[in-house]
Amino acid sequence: MAISKEVSKPDALFTFDALYLYTSLPFYMKIELHRADDAFHFISSNQDGLTIESDGSLAIGGGNKAMRPMEMVLSAIASCSSIDVVMILKKQRQQLEDIKVTVEGKRAEGQVPAVFTDIHIHFKLTGKIAESKGQRAVQLSMEEYCSVSKMLEKSVNITYSVEIIQT
């Protein structure tokens, strides 16, 4: 089955091969979770056997041994968008030496479930990066390519900022 998606290239700064990205992604995923203790410590594994742990806070009887599920959501948007940014900057032949991402999430107060209402992502790019290309890479990720961001934006106000440190 051939998969094609027409992708317009908005400007000359954009040389990211989006069709390759879309056709190389797994469209089916499976996660298995098992309980690691008698409280809220869980270990999830994917089809490749890679694992990640989660736990509840001490306040609810957890052991505080791993990130909470909602923290993992923030981590997911940071890592998903960072993969895009690194790929885009690499295609643009920018010399990215480091990327640090800080994500802050605000949850609905006094509600169950306490879903995110606002998320802000701050990208700190270090290297020999043209300001316009760094800004554009983050914009493309957040507004077009990051699957986590696109999924969350349907119910969460997502904002982002970019800081570029030249070396």
Keywords:
disordered N terminus; 167 residues; alpha+beta; three-stranded mixed sheet; 4 helices; GMP Synthetase, Chain A, domain 3; 31% helix; three-stranded antiparallel sheet
Characterise the protein shown here.
With 167 residues, the chain is an alpha+beta fold. The chain has a domain at 18-25 and 68-166: 2-Layer Sandwich (GMP Synthetase, Chain A, domain 3). The protein contains four helices and six strands. Strands 1-2-3 form a three-stranded antiparallel sheet, with no helix packed on it. Strands 4-5-6 form a three-stranded mixed sheet, covered by helices on one side. β2 and β3 (51-54) form a beta hairpin.
Walk across the major sheet and give the strand order. Answer: 1-2-3
- H and E string: HEEEHEEHHE
The whole-number mean of residue pLDDT values reads 90
CATH topology of the domain at 18-25 and 68-166, by name, is GMP Synthetase, Chain A, domain 3
Low-confidence stretches: 1-15
Query: In terms of quaternary structure, what is this?
Result: single chain
Q: Roughly how many Å apart are the termini?
A: 46 Å
- Helical content stands at 25-40%
